[in-house]
């Protein structure tokens, strides 16, 4: 896995988690890693177990030059759509970096300019560049922790396990109990959406 994409030392990698979920926020992280940062386990968060992600989280946080994490909640997602919410989450995470950013690398193919800083969108960037992989791990671990918290409030949806993704169990619970303030009402929550009385 390559260290950086550009020749700049202050290159921020950014990624989001939770884009395809029916409930909870979309969460983004931005990370700048020092040039001497090395880690053999860091990879795209989807390739790692929850245990490995939780072990890597403090390693990334302590080793990073700086990092930022931001949630965009369902009410805003419904208002501006999930693509715009994902980009806004990444912008907000970048805003939290307490270091100058010279270049941004983004996982995926869609982004909007951030403060005139040059950027590059990289398909599967989280499996190619360390800072994007680190951002994907932070986004996922922070979002998972949030979903486990709200699980306590609404245990019948089992967000502790499904994290808000459209599993069969999650959809059955929506059918049975309806929606909550944490659901994204602009999403197709059930295949037979017309029958769901919102």
UniProtKB/TrEMBL annotation:
Q: Which domain of life is it from?
A: Bacteria
Q: Which residues participate in a divalent metal cation binding?
A: 15-16, 107
Q: Name one GO biological process term.
A: DNA replication, removal of RNA primer
In the record's cofactor note, how is the cofactor described as bound?
Answer: Manganese or magnesium. Binds 1 divalent metal ion per monomer in the absence of substrate. May bind a second metal ion after substrate binding.
Q: What is its EC number?
A: 3.1.26.4
Q: Which InterPro entries match?
A: RNase_HII, RNase_HII/HIII, RNase_HII/HIII_dom, RNaseH-like_sf, RNaseH_sf
Locations listed in the record = Cytoplasm
Q: What's in the keyword line of the UniProt record?
A: Cytoplasm, Endonuclease, Hydrolase, Manganese, Metal-binding, Nuclease
Task: Return the Pfam families for the record.
Answer: RNase_HII
Give the main localization category. cytoplasm
- Gene Ontology annotations for the cellular component aspect, listed alphabetically: cytoplasm; ribonuclease H2 complex
Can you state which reaction this protein catalyses?
Endonucleolytic cleavage to 5'-phosphomonoester
Q: Which GO terms describe its molecular function?
A: manganese ion binding; RNA binding; RNA-DNA hybrid ribonuclease activity
PANTHER family in UniProt: RIBONUCLEASE H2 SUBUNIT A, RIBONUCLEASE HII
| Role this protein plays | Endonuclease that specifically degrades the RNA of RNA-DNA hybrids.
- Give the family from UniProt: Belongs to the RNase HII family.
Record protein name field: Ribonuclease HII
Q: Which organism is it from?
A: Galbibacter orientalis DSM 19592
């Amino acid at each position: 896995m390559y260290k950086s994409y550009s020749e700049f030392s202050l290159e921020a990698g950014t990624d989001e988690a939770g884009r395809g979920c029916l409930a909870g926020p979309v969460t983004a992280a931005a990370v700048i890693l020092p040039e001497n940062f090395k880690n053999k386990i860091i990879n795209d968060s989807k390739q790692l177990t929850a245990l490995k992600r939780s072990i890597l989280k403090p390693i990334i946080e302590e080793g990073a030059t700086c990092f930022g994490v931001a949630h965009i909640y369902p009410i805003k997602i419904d208002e501006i759509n999930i693509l715009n919410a994902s980009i806004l989450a990444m912008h907000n995470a970048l805003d939290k970096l307490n270091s100058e950013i010279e270049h941004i690398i983004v996982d995926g193919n869609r982004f909007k300019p951030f403060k005139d800083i040059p950027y590059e969108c990289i398909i599967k960037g989280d499996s190619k560049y360390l800072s994007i992989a680190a951002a994907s791990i932070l986004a996922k671990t922070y979002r998972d922790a949030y979903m486990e918290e709200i699980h306590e409030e609404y245990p019948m949806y089992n967000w502790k396990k499904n994290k808000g993704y459209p599993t069969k169990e999650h959809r059955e619970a929506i059918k049975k109990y309806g929606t909550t303030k944490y659901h994204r009402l602009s999403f197709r929550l059930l295949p037979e959406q017309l029958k769901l009385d919102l």
